[in-house]
Amino acid sequence: MASIMNAGGLPSDQPGYSFSNASAPSESSGPRQHAFNPYTDNGGSTLGVTGADFAILAGDTRSTSGYNINTRYAPKLFRIGDDGDSSSRIVLSVVGFAADGNALKERLDAIVKMYKYQHGKPMSVKACAQRLSTILYQKRFFPYYVHAILGGLDDDGKGALYSYDPVGSYEREQCRAAGAAASLIMPFLDNQVNYKNQYIPASGTGHELQPRAIESLPKEDVIGLVKDAFTSATERHIEVGDGLQMLIITKDGIEEIYTPLKRD
Amino acid sequence: MNHYPQAWGRPRDDVYGPYDNSYFQASAPQTHTQSPAVTGTSVLGVKFKDGVVIAADNLASYGSLARFTDVKRLRTFPPNTVIGFGGDVSDMQYLDRLLQSLDIRENYLSSYGHVLNAKNLHTYLSKVLYKRRSDFNPLWNMLLVAGLDDDDKPFLASADLLGTTFSSPTLATGFGAHLAQPLLRKLMPHDEDSVKDVTKEMAVEAIKACMKVLFYRDARSLDKYSIAVVTKDGVELKEDQKLEDQSWAFADQIRGYGTQVN
Amino acid sequence: MTSIGTGYDLSNSVFSPDGRNFQVEYAVKAVENGGTSIGIRTKHGVVLACEKIISSKLLKPGANLRISTVDRHAGVVTSGLLPDGRHLISRARDEASSWRQTYKGPIPVHALASRMGGYVQAYTLYSSVRPFGVTAILGGWDSEAELGVDGQVGFGPSVGAGGKLEDEVVKRGGPGLYMIEPSGLYWGYYGAATGKGRQAAKAELEKLDLASPTCSLSLKDAVMEAARIIYVAHEDSKDKEFELEMTWISTLDGPTKGQHQQVPQELLEEAEKAAKKSLEGDDDEEEEEEEGDAMQE
Q1: pLDDT at C262 over 80
Q2: What CA–CA distance (Å, rounded) separates B162 from B146?
Q3: Can you tell me whether residue A3 is helix, strand or coil?
Q4: Which one-letter DSSP state was computed for residue A25?
Q5: Most buried among A131, B100, B244, C69, by the most CB within 10 A?
Q6: How far is CA B239 from CA B57, B67, B224, B236, in A?
């Protein structure tokens, strides 16, 4: 949020506005103490990928405070609207400030359950996605400091994935990485899932070069990509590691896979 | 409206004169407790096959002053939960009274017995802490909750002033997170799977060793401490333990501080 | 009642010319029809007992408790209109908890009795309310130990300024038993009884000689007696089935450690058995006498 408040790099010589002063904190009147900061970052990373008839959400299980590892097993993935009858087909992943993530999870879970009790049918992922955006935006001026990814199956049975910013802006995507190692994982996903920068060899020169056509990947391939993404992120990012939790949503239910990651 | 979102909702300088940024900057969020006053240091906790061992020293510091030396930072909740508090002592007392009132209300339903286990209390406390941080009026504590979960299995989890929670076979708050946690983790090479191989004696011994390390290295610590063993059968709480077999021989070797400058 | 129908009984808080408040008297009538409740105070603690009339065979035995915990060290049993009792108990709990919030310690039993009395009395003052249709018996134990404040973390200096005197002998704490009536009147008692069987119960309580400084009744004896008295008091309404419910509060070194608790199932059954036996004994004697008479004939 701080970056929004004092965004640098704005043209200070423009007439009419005094942005240049905005990022330079001026002396306040009266004594100022070190204030309470209600946020922290608990590290870790999450990602989601969809296929023709499935969606996979994944997250490492490490929780950190600065250079400390709080625990090696703190899941970031949650089944939403799960009554214990394994009827749930929606998964939420949250990464960022864990306490906010937990609070967000509990609220969405309660809402999705209430929807089922009141309407006698489970909430669609599309409706749930919109509702999640509303919850986030309701706290626009004291946001849940999390990057959320919501996964499930849409009305046609296709994998559905929605990604959010902390204040509720969202879109449906094929794949998305979030959290500490998002910048490491996302380009890998762009290349391997959406075939960005992949061209058909000798299909032309310059702009004539034909991009490799996007195809929907089989589940096993995606699981492989997810594992590779996290083992690599574990190597390059200190806040990622310990364990990888994957939740795979298909029409038959949610399958959970846990794989150890390096603990260093 | 223009393409500078930062300008939206602000008066234009060319119309109203230069914008008074100090007005904008100085309006930092109003907070209540800005910092803790009388504080307790680390709390340690280790699971073992039948329960949990938890310990904290008996010191309450006022800055660098060792202000109170008989402070009981392990608080019990019937029938078998112990909560170890680090951080602000007055906030700890507030939470202790909150738990007492909760216990009294539980006993209104006397025939149904105690139903709140450590897991329930941890959830409750973390929600209290999260609510208070969201009100910008935090309870300045880090706490460990030790006891049993719904299946009577060992339960150990932490909660802090931000409402952050996590659980692990070994936990340590404050200085202990740096000094004790790595030592305690040696007990649990396979994390949760190792708990069944740890006996009460092993857990107690590890905790005692860590309390000693903390006394050697944490300047805000004391050699008098409380230790509790929580099992299905109840709580075994000792509040006036003394650190045994201290060895300060290593102190000679320390260079660069105090009198031994080189 | 002689003055009924004169119009002075139609509104609460209105006096009749001869100085009576009829609504309160009617409330007492409601109590006199309720199940019997008693309390026994001894040096070693307090016992509360009540006769719970079983209004339906479909009610679960042992459920729907009638004696309530108000704070750790205090319990209340009521006779009369049950919902009125519930409301009064809820108020007593609020009083006990607000005392704790203010003074960071348990409310003394006499203070709780006073708060409850004051609350009940207020319901005799306004035409918009009716008096409580209950008489409550409050039992409690004020700790005999030197108590710190709730949440206290240490004990302060052991010597010197603020230190403790070695041989300080202070008499503090002890049992408390109070009965609060619909008028708001409350007295402290050695033994209290209310409800339908109160007359028989009071007669039995008086025999225990509780007021005497030499009374040798132990807490267990008190439990046994309480059970017996409830059974004796039930004799007049034998057609109705009932359950015996008992709670107790002991000294800090006693079985409940100063806390208000259910009498343990084992002891309750023992007391109940003994109570039944003593009544059967009475019957046997009568029967024997009858038989004897018959033989003489």
Answers
A1: yes
A2: 20
A3: helix
A4: P
A5: C69
A6: 9, 18, 9, 10
Residue whose tokens read 């007295």: C187
| C188-232 pLDDT tens trace | 999 999 999 999 999 999 999 999 999 999 999 999 999 999 999
Burial state string for B227-255 with b = 16 or more CB within 10 A and e = fewer than 16: bbbbbeeebebeeebebeeeeeeeeeeee
Q: Is residue A136 part of a domain?
A: yes
Residue C296 has pLDDT above 50, yes or no: no
DSSP for B163-212, written as a single string = --EEE-SEEE-THHHHHHHHHHHTT-TTGGGGGGG--HHHHHHHHHHHHH
Q: Any idea which residue has 């109840």 for tokens?
A: B234
Residue A22 included in any domain: no
Q: How far apart are CA C162 and CA A164, in angstroms?
A: 60
Is C153 within 8 Å of B104 when comparing Cβ atoms?
A: no
Residue pairs between chains A and B whose CB atoms are closer than 8 Å: 105
Q: Across residues B16-43, what is the average pLDDT?
A: 72
Q: What is the ipTM of this complex?
A: 0.86
Q: In angstroms, how far is CA A108 from the centroid of its own chain?
A: 15
> Does residue B33 carry a catalytic annotation?
yes
Give the whole-angstrom CA distance, residue B155 versus residue B80: 11
Which chains neighbour A (Cβ–Cβ under 8 Å, 3 or more pairs)? B
Beta carbons of C151 and B93 less than 8 Å apart: yes
Q: Tell me the whole-structure pTM to 2 decimals.
A: 0.87
CATH number at residue A181: 3.60.20.10
A212 domain residue, yes or no: yes
> Is A204 within a domain?
yes
State chain B's maximal CA–CA distance in angstroms.
Answer: 77
Establish whether chain A is in contact with chain B, requiring a minimum of 3 CB pairs below 8 angstroms: yes
Domain count of chain A?
1
Position B257 scores a pLDDT of: 72
Question: Chain A closest CA to B144's CA: distance in Å?
Answer: 12
The values of phi and psi at residue A197, to 5°, are: 60, 20
Q: Are C107 and C100 in contact (CB under 8 A)?
A: yes
- Please write the tens of the pLDDT for every residue from A73-94: 999 999 999 988 888 899 999 9
> A120: exposed, middle or buried (C-beta count within 10 Å: 0-12, 13-18, 19+)?
exposed
- CB spacing of B108 vs C69 below 8 angstroms: yes
What domains can you pick out in chain B, each with its CATH number? 38-238 (3.60.20.10)
Average model confidence (pLDDT) for chain B? Answer: 90
- Shortest Cα distance, chain B CAs vs residue C268, angstroms: 14
**Structural domains present in chain C:** 22-290 (3.60.20.10)
In angstroms, the CA B107 to CA B97 distance is 15
Domain containing residue A96: 45-261
Residue C6 has pLDDT above 90, yes or no: no
- Tell me how far apart the alpha carbons of residues B101 and A153 are, in angstroms, rounded to a whole number: 46
At C284, the pLDDT band (50, 70, 90 cuts) reads low
Test B96 with C247 for CB contact under 8 angstroms. Answer: no
The reply to whether residue B111 touches residue C62, judged by beta carbons under 8 angstroms, is yes
Which member of B69, B70, B96 has the closest CB to residue C151? Answer: B96
- What is the predicted pLDDT for the residue at A10? 43
Judge residue C101's burial from the number of C-beta atoms within 10 Å of its C-beta, 0-12 exposed, 13-18 middle, 19 or more buried: exposed
String of DSSP letters for C241-275: -EEEEEEEEE-TTSTTTT--EEPPHHHHHHHHHHH
Please give the single-letter amino acid code of residue B155. Answer: F
Helical ranges in C4-51 per DSSP H: 22-32
Distance CA A227, CA A216 (A): 18
CA C15, CA C125: separation in Å to the nearest integer? Answer: 11
Q: How many other β-carbons are positioned within 10 Å of the β-carbon of residue C293?
A: 9
Q: How far is the alpha carbon of B204 from chain C, nearest alpha carbon, in Å?
A: 23
